[in-house]
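Reply to dn_fold:

You asked what the input looked like. This is it:
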Amino acid sequence: MNSVEITLGHSPDADDAFMFYALSQKKIPLGNYIFKETISDIETLNNLAMDEKIDLTALSIYTYCKVADRYVLMNCGASMGEGYGPRLVAKHKFEKKEMSQKKIAIPGLHTSALLALCLYLGKRPKNLDLMVCPFDQVFMAVEMGSADIGLVIHEGQISYLQRGLELCEDLGWWWKQTTGLPLPLGGNAIRRALGVQRCRELQSIVRQSIEWALKNRNEALQYAQKYSRGIEPALTDQFVAMYVNERTIDYGPEGKEAILQFIAQAKMLGMVDPDIQVEFVE
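and this is what came back:
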């Protein structure tokens, strides 16, 4: 059987590293697929998907809205905040009514964190004072005074306390209180051009990789620690548990409803095409 090369993208973060460890290190059968990995920050992966330059990739749910005509969402690989998510942090606490008047450092214009922020404030990006910077430089922007507030993602959601910053709002908590649903942040998407059968086969491989990591947690965590940017192993474990769990294996009805609700509210705010349709690999 001839081999098939698949370009695979995921972020250099502990949760993605944990999720894709078994696939990357060939701990599971890969069939006739050869994976060529691209490990880049989520905004770079979002841009690759928008240019359709990658076959299978982690991406922001907000970005999926912009590429749904060319990509289909996997049923596995979700990053959902179960009452937690991207956090707005500052040197001192700002109330919600103050935040829309402050300069906010964000990790990208195509991230679900930005969409959640806009839904929270009820304003589109053009009506906010935003400073775009790499996700791992958001803390510095606040600490140096370049921005008043930082929108932090990844392990920054739990490490901000170590930097002496105050929590202004947890957008995952706000979303849960508002909708009763988890906050859909990231997912895995596959190019439609690969065909239905390959999409199903690739989804099966990714699901097996997630299941393997959850069953062999210590080994996968040891690998993931390399992508934790200096935080302690206990915090890495905590962060991975937040975003790689049973819902990562399968969205389930509630997870799918969360995505539909997130996108519906984005449509109401005028941030995505009103005709966008979400499709999952079945």
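The chain has a mean pLDDT of 93.
Hope that clears it up.
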